[in-house]
Amino acid sequence: MTDTASSDALVHDPKGGLPRLIEIMRRLRDPETGCPWDLEQDFSTIAPYTIEEAYEVADAIDREAWGELRGELGDLLFQSVFHAQMASERGLFDIHQVADTMSDKMVARHPHVFGEESREKSAEQQTRDWEAVKAAERAARDETRTLDGVALGLPALLRAVKLQKRAARVGFDWPETDQVLDKAAEEMRELVEARDTLGPDEVEEEMGDLLFVMANLARHLGVEPEAALRRANAKFTRRFNAVEDALAAKGRTPHQSDLAEMDALWDAAKAAEKKSD
User: Boundaries of each NTP pyrophosphohydrolase MazG-like domain copy (predicted)?
Assistant: First the structure.
């Protein structure tokens, strides 16, 4: 769209939908009249915002903040439009091609919905079929190793689980959860040994090994570790806020308290939560 009047009309149309957002992004990146900040950005500088917005979507869902979710999804959608605009400027692809690529992928991966395959199969079979289709797509990209294609940019905890799932598909996995627990205990002992006798690099390595095994344990227990850790973070925040509130009621701050008192207030907050449940 190049006609200024038409562009202005679309930009200010409250019901303009996705075309409006695309035009706004184009205008923000206009070399002559765009926003200086937006014009300075590239894929690498915008990527951290994209990741942040995805987490904010997850946070709204975790809190069941449905009134906020629409806005967070909009922020995430804007990130896709931003990346697509920069790609369009380089002659790589545009947002419409992004949508077409996604549509083609979904149709190809759901032959039981859009093709001739029967829908009369279990969710487990559908998962296996999905993985087979994705494996074929990776092979077409010459990604022939088991762990090829697991994105380096994923959060480390999520990537650990994905790597473990890939390895498990070819039989490289403990058959029993107890074996994972034994490995976790072994890694804990090695971490203590590194702390007591080795240097910071070895301590970091052993800590990484322990975290990797804990991610594996979560997988064996059917727990999504990222969600579990977010839940633990929220619980810690909630209870520590209660500690601060209790201290404030006494006219004091955590700096004016000590560990023994705060620990007692923590236990009281914990007990109060369990009683309310």
Answer: 41-114, 181-241
The listed CATH number (3.40.30.10, 1.10.287.1080, 1.20.120.450, 3.40.50.620) that belongs to domain 4-108: 1.10.287.1080
Length of the chain: 277
The answer to whether residue 148 scores a pLDDT higher than 60 is yes
3-class DSSP assignment, residue 107: helix
Given this model, what pLDDT does residue 99 score? 96
145-223 has which CATH code?
1.10.287.1080
Q: How far apart are CA 4 and CA 266, in angstroms?
A: 61
User: Distance from CA of residue 277 to its chain's centroid?
Assistant: 29
Q: In the numeric block, which tokens belong to residue 112?
A: 């039981």
**What does the domain layout of the chain look like in residue ranges?**
4-108, 145-223, 227-276
Q: pTM value?
A: 0.64
Percent of the chain with pLDDT over 90: 69
Q: What is the pLDDT of residues 12-60, one digit of tens each?
A: 999 999 999 999 999 999 999 999 999 999 999 999 899 889 989 988 9
Q: If we measure between CA atoms, which residue out of 109, 104, 166, 110 comes closest to residue 134?
A: 109
